[in-house]
Every structure is written in structure tokens, then in C-alpha cells.
Amino acid sequence: MEARQGTGGAAGTGGGIHAPARAGDEIRLSVVIPNYNYARFVGDAIDSALGLDWPHVEVIVVDDGSTDGSRAVIEAYGPRITALFQPNQGQVGACNTGFVASHGNVVIFLDSDDVLDPSVVREAAAAWRPGISKLQFQMRSVDADLVPHGSFFPQYHQVPTPDEVRRWATSTGTYPTPPGSGNVYSREFLQKIFPLDHAGGRASDSCCIAAAPFLGDVITLPKPLVSYRIHGKNDGAFSELDTRRFGREVARATQLFGYAQRIAASAGLSVADDAIRYSLSLLPYRVASFRLDPTAHPLPRDHRVSLLGDLFHGLRRPQGMTWRARAAISIWSVLVLFAPMWLASRIVLWRFATGTRPQALVRSMRALGIVR
What pTM did the predictor assign? Predict the structure, then answer.
């Protein structure tokens, strides 16, 4: 691996013992940006990290064997960042490299196509305290040119306490959470799970998100503090209907659930083997996968009756959703399972690719309080 070292702020001096962040301590932030062939976007991500309204920030960019013009973009920042270049190891490998090189007591893994708001660290610092594993906030959906779609996620219908997040994760294997760039982690927590392997799939954020409720407190800020680009090549975002992708997401979630069970057990907590069946966050992926591509659906026990049964039992388990949101998932699931295929496909697209929703539907959802 090649390294181009820069100061990137003053998050630490390197080498020594990393003290956990405590109330009243100065947050020393490390922003780790894994990049692969995002020359078009990575400069915006770096600029947002360098522009944070906080005195102690280091920016570490790990280029994971890009074959486009990423290297030139990254090297142009010179000593303002720490630039690391390595052969392709995937996102997990890039984040492992970046974490080892970091010195901060608080870490953000910023996807190289996302953009942080300048105030994100000050918002986090105001809520930080001992025992936090991660602080999570909302993300606004934008297009490739950073033009907002007018929506943000997750929809925190209630702002959960850490105990509620832990209870939901234990009961259903999931909880309302943003993907990678929407989370700020304590180093104390990350040291318990790094280096990451592929136990949670190829996305580096999966294991961090799954483990957080069991190894510390998850604090939720219901504010959009990062822009999440949807440009057609994202690993997590939908811009068009890819029927096979739903099955892949279900398989990945099932694999990640096993990892969460192991982490919970290590903390003396028990997560039932069937808990994931009642997750209302995962259920729409299962319904879409089963209906749109049944031959490739990874859960052979799923069929219309069993999915409706899991929906019924899931509705009875608190998961941080209002009755409106639960009703919307119920109606959506029934429509997808029983509507003609042409209509079911359109309904699935509208749910997962928010930019394709007709404005009349968006206005109706807002009026009902389903989205904001």
C-alpha cells in the first residue's frame, strides 16, 4: 500500500493510546473516506470533511485500487489529507485500512459519493456522552448534482431512546438507522469489532450498525446532516427497478442477522432465531423479492400466507413506527402481493426509488404523516 501522509487537521499525534470520548472532552474526529472509481464525486466528499465546523478533524482517504481518475483528484489535496492507495480489497478492506491509520476518538466512515453538513460535529458534540457506541442522524436524498429530491430518511416517527433501540434490535434484529455516512462512532466501540470481515456482507457499514445497540448506546438526532447521493451506481440506493437486487438484500440481511446474534450473545443478550421474520424494515424487501423474482428468492419458506402472517406478528412488536407507518406497510404489502404484476412492479418502484414517485403520491404521504 502506498501512502501520502498529510496533517489533515489535528485529530491526534499517532501511535499512542486512544482515549474514549467522554462528556466534556474535546471530540477529535477522524473522517475515513473509502473510495473506488468515484473520481466524479470524491472531491465533494473530501471538501465537505475539510469544511466541517470543528477544530480537530483529520481526513483519511483510502483509494481502493481505482482505475479512473480518482488518484489525481485525491493527490491534488496534498498535505491537507492523509491519502492511502492500496490494491482493491473492497469496501471492508478500505475501511479497515483507514481505521488503522486514524487517531480520533470519534470516527465517521464517509462514503465517497456523500457530503457532510458543516455542522455535523457540533451537533454530535452537543449530544455526546460516555457509553455511546454511535450517534445517528438523518440523510437527505439528492441527485448526482446534489440537487435535493425533497425527502430524507430514516423517518424517525419517534425519537428512540438507547434502551428502545436495543429492545427493537433484540426483538426484530433491526432498528431504524441510516446507512454508513449517517453514523458517528466512538473509537471505543469500533475497537471491539475491528478489523471487520465479511460476516455482514461486503458493505462495511453493516457490521458497525448491527453491533452498535448491543455494545453501547445508540443516540438518535432527528436532523438531516448529510446528503446521500442517488445516482444509479450506489450499493444501497435505488434509482430504477432491479428485481434481483431485492433477493440479494434479503440474503445479506439474513447473513447480517447471524452476526448480530453473535455480537448480542457476547454481550449477554439473546436474539431469537425467528426475530428477523418480524422486522417491518426487512419485510418490504422480502415481499418485493418474492413477488418480482420468486425463483431467486432466498427464503424458500416465504409465500403469500406466511408473509402476511409475519406482517401481522410484526405489527404487534414495537419497532419505532407510528400507526400510520405500520398501516402504510400493511397496505403496500397486500397490494404488492395480490395486485397484477404491472401494478405491483410500479408500487415497488415508488417505494424504493423515491425520485420516481408521482407528486400527487408524495403530497398524500406527507399529508398522512408517512413521510416528511
Answer: 0.84
For residues 30 and 103, the answer to whether their CB atoms sit within 8 Å is: yes
3-state secondary structure labels for all residues of the chain: CEEECCCCCCCCCCCCCCCCCCCCCCCCEEEEEEECCCHHHHHHHHHHHHCCCCCCEEEEEEEECCCCCHHHHHHCCHHHCEEEEECCCHHHHHHHHHHHHCCCCEEEECCCCCEECCCHHHHHHHHCCCCEEEEEEEEEEECCCCCEEEEEECCCCCCCCHHHHHHHHHHHCCCCCCCHHHEEEEHHHHCCCCCCCCCCCCCHHHHHHHHHHHCCEEEEEEEEEEEEECCCCCCCCCCCCCHHHHHHHHHHHHHHHHHHHHHHHHCCCCCCCCHHHHCCCCHHHHHHHHHHCHHHCCCCCCCHHHHHHHHHHHHCCCCCCCHHHHHHHHHHHHHHHHCCHHHHHHHHHHHHCHHHCCHHHHHHHHHCCCCC
Which amino acid belongs to residue 304? R
Q: Read off the pLDDT of residues 241-255 as tens digits, 9 standing for 90 and up.
A: 677 889 999 999 999
Query: Are 368 and 324 within 8 A, CB to CB?
Result: yes
Residue 142 Rama label (left phi>0; alpha psi -120 to 50; beta): beta
81-104 burial by CB neighbour count: b if 16+ within 10 A, else e? Answer: bbbbbeeebbbbbbbbbbbebbbb
CA distance 86 to 98: 11
Q: Could you read off the pLDDT of 140-151 as tens digits, one per residue? A: 999 888 888 888
Are residues 47 and 117 in contact, defined by beta-carbon separation less than 8 angstroms?
no
Q: Residues 51-93: pLDDT tens digits?
A: 999 999 999 999 999 999 999 999 999 999 999 999 999 999 9
